[in-house]
Amino acid sequence: MQYSDRSMTMLSFNHVLALSLSWHTKRKTGELLRILDRGSAVNRVGELIGFTVPPALVDVIVALVVFLVKFEPALSLVSGP
C-alpha cells in the first residue's frame, strides 16, 4: 500500500512539474497541491480503518469464542463488550 501511495504521489508531482509555465500562472498551483495532499490523507485514513479495525474485531470475537468454549457462556457474555 505504501509503495502504490508513494508511486501515485510521485507521478502526480512529476506531472504538475512538467506542465507549462503558462498553465502555472493561470491556475492556482498551491490549491492543486493541497488537493493532492488531501488525497494522500484520505488514503492514510483508509489504511488506518482497513488495517486496524478489522484485526481488533477479530481479536475480540476470538476471545469471546475462547471464553465461551473454555468457560461458562455467562462468563463470555460478562467479559464481552
Please explain how this structure is put together.
- The longest helix is centred in the middle third of the chain and has 42 residues, at 29-70.
- This protein has 81 residues and is an all-alpha fold.
- The radius of gyration is 23 Å and the shape is rod-shaped.
- Helices cover 89% and strands 0% of the residues.
- The protein has 4 helices and no strands.
Q: What are the secondary-structure elements, in order, as H or E?
A: HHHH
What share of residues are in beta strands?
under 5%
Radius of gyration: 23 Å
Structure annotation, total helices: 4
Instruction: Give the helix level as a range of percent.
Output: over 70%
Specify the overall morphology: rod-shaped
Structural class: mainly alpha
Largest sheet: none
- Separation of termini? 32 Å
Q: Count of DSSP E strands? A: 0
Report mean pLDDT, rounded to a whole number.
80
Q: Give the uncertain stretches in residue-range form.
A: none
A few lines on this structure:
The chain has 81 residues and is mainly alpha-helical. Helices cover 89% and strands 0% of the residues.
Tags for this entry?
81 residues, single chain, mainly alpha
Set out the fold topology.
Elements (H helix, E strand, L loop, with lengths): L1 H17 L2 H6 L2 H42 L2 H7 L2
